[in-house]
Amino acid sequence: MTIDFRSLAKQNIRNLPIYQPGKPTEEVEREFGIFSSIKLASNENPLGASPTIISELQKALQNIHIYPDGECYEIKQALANFLAISPAKLTIGNGSENILELIVKAYLHDDNNAVISEYAFLTIPIILKSYGVVTKVVPALNWSHDIEGMIDAVNENTRVIFFVNPNNPTGTYLNDEKFRKILSAIPPKVLIVCDEAYAEYMTSDDYPKTQEYLSSHPNLIITRTFSKVYGLAGLRIGYAMSSPEIAEILNRTRLPFNVNSFAAKAACVALKDQWHVKESIRINQEGMQQITAELKKMNISFIPSVGNFVTIDVGDAEKIYQKLLQEGVIVRPLKAYNMHHHIRVTIGKPEQNQRFLQTLKKIL
Ligand SMILES: *Cc1c(COP(=O)(O)O)cnc(C)c1O
Questions:
Q1: Is 203 left (phi over 0), alpha (psi -120 to 50) or beta?
Q2: pLDDT surpasses 90 at 17
Q3: Which residues sit with their C-beta closer than 6 Å to ligand 1?
Q4: Three-class SS of residue 13?
Q5: Does the reported pTM lie above 0.90?
Q6: How many angstroms does the Cα of residue 123 sit away from the middle of ligand 1?
Q7: Ligand 1 atom showing the smallest separation from residue 96 Cα
Q8: Mean pLDDT in residue range 89-115
Q9: Is 21 a residue whose pLDDT tops 90?
Q10: Element holding 27 (H helix, E strand)
Q11: What whole-number percentage of the chain has pLDDT above 70?
Q12: Tens-place pLDDT, residues 309-333
């Protein structure tokens, strides 16, 4: 008798959609027999990480036989200083997606539901599905979260409401006025999670300083990452700020060595190099300008973005995505979001942006 081990898995796991990450350059080059492809598909920092990290990691190599610090003491201290927050309010994760999972794992009971927006960062609904959580997806409004709709969707069984600010893949953001509306409307027992993976790129004054609301709103959880502006996506480290009570639960939920020693060390060093952060933001602003100005000239519409990426209406997105791939330009199609006309392009270095624009022109 043969046993189908697929069918033995929980049903919600069996039916889980597979997250399609941006294709690695090596894969594209192998597939198409080409060289020098560029990846503008995963919102990685085109400048890489701070060069100050390399020598520190070489030192850390000496100790790879030692378990990492399960307490994450050093990075917590560094973050506490940098953010002017108590270490008791911090949770460190294996990427911020790890933190999002800890929240779901710890707080979503069988009869609870979660509220998210349409087009919200896909990892969140995937985590929710993997835990079998009933999820209310509120239709977006002009590609952005519909705040009124999301507030209305909350009922007595709602345990968590997710905001992605700015949102990936739409690049839209919620301002402080909207955020305060959320804070006053959501019942105090409902966790308000703000995924702020791109917070460092935000320059506008009306971007909510969510950290300032932590003491008045102990149901608030803010997640951030070292994967984007800090350029450490490959090492996997992110963090949450919350009330100490929630942090205590999340720290209990996390596995003891969820953060590896390289990631923790690199994050400490990266925090100190704020010049690199500034430079990354500057390159991003210039690149965004470069790409959107040209798109306007070409009469191609896009969703105005405050992130390090822009989502562009190219008509038949799958076709354009494939053609770009053949030319060695890797972007992200968004059919997993039900956005069949859009591709998402990460802002790169000037010459990468130029190559993307020229290739797109050629294809269209
Ligand atoms: C990239 C991204 C993350 C980061 O995930 P990590 O696990 O920290 O790499 C989280 N949220 C959003 C919206 C993102 O785009």
A1: alpha
A2: no
A3: 43, 95-97, 121, 164, 168, 195, 197, 225, 227-228, 233, 238
A4: helix
A5: yes
A6: 8
A7: 8
A8: 98
A9: no
A10: helix 25-32
A11: 100
A12: 999 999 999 999 999 999 999 999 9
Asked if 230 contacts 82 with a C-beta cutoff of 8 angstroms, the reply is no
* CA distances for 98 relative to 68, 201, 357, angstroms: 17, 22, 35
Q: Which two tokens stand for residue 297?
A: 């000239």
Answer yes or no: is pLDDT of 115 > 90: yes
Report the C-alpha gap between 250 and 244 in whole angstroms. 10
Q: Does residue 1 carry a pLDDT above 90?
A: no
Tokens coding 199: 């917070």
Which range among 27-41, 95-109, 168-182, 197-211 shows the weakest confidence by mean pLDDT?
27-41
Q: Which atom of ligand 1 is nearest to the CA of 226?
A: 8
Buried b (16+ CB within 10 A) or exposed e, 198-219: bbbbbeeeebbebbebbeebeb
- Mean pLDDT, the chain, rounded, equals 96
Cα 164 to ligand 1 centre (Å)? 10
Task: Measure 314 CA to ligand 1 centroid, in angstroms.
Answer: 25
Q: Are 193 and 160 in contact (CB under 8 A)?
A: yes
Pocket test for ligand 1, best of 42, 121, 224, 311 (most atoms within 8 A of CB): 121
**Among candidate residues 143, 140, 144, 44, the one with its CA nearest the CA of residue 95:** 44
3-state secondary structure of 144: strand
Residue with tokens 């933190």: 99
